[in-house]
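Researcher: Next sequence.
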Amino acid sequence: MSDNEQTEGKKKQVLSQYPKTQIKIARFFYIWLVVAIIITILGLLWFGGEVLFGQGLVFEWFMVLQLGWQIAVVGALLAGLFFLLVYFFGLFKKGETAIFNLTFKIKQVDDQYKNRREIQVIVFGLLLSLIGIMFGVVYGFIAEILAIFSAGASSTLAAFSPGQLCLIGGILLLVLDGLCMFMIFFIKNGYYLILRLIGKIEK
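Model: Next structure:
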């Protein structure tokens, strides 16, 4: 048995000790991360094309190409996509394990520091703040998208090009993925995190 197989076997044994629901959530966050990265890269390429050929002219440039060049462009895009999928699939177990350890692993707190009321209040307040940030970002983005298709409504997103919107959407998905993981981590380890921060400040 190779070293890689032994390492993968140890990771499976470690993950098998935890609830399947948490493992599925970590897997979902990894897939979400992959999708967000692919959309962000697509947005960068799209926006780069708009910088070179002008806003809204990327598809027009593509349509005036000869058939052979069109096939080559599509083939290059698909090759890049499948390369990314192979790369992320190869990192699937490592990424899933890393996200699981980052999100669900509980930090131990010494008994002398447990049940401090002021720390619990701070943790609760920060958790509410994180929920407010997530709700505000999601609600605001959805409202902006709906405003684009509503007659008489104004939207700040209408000023952006399709490539910029794709890039913004990918970055937003990355931010929301990170916020969701941090919120779960904070629910489980917020007490430890605040104690550690206070300890560094006191030193």
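Model: The chain has seven helices and no strands. Residues 3-202 form one domain.
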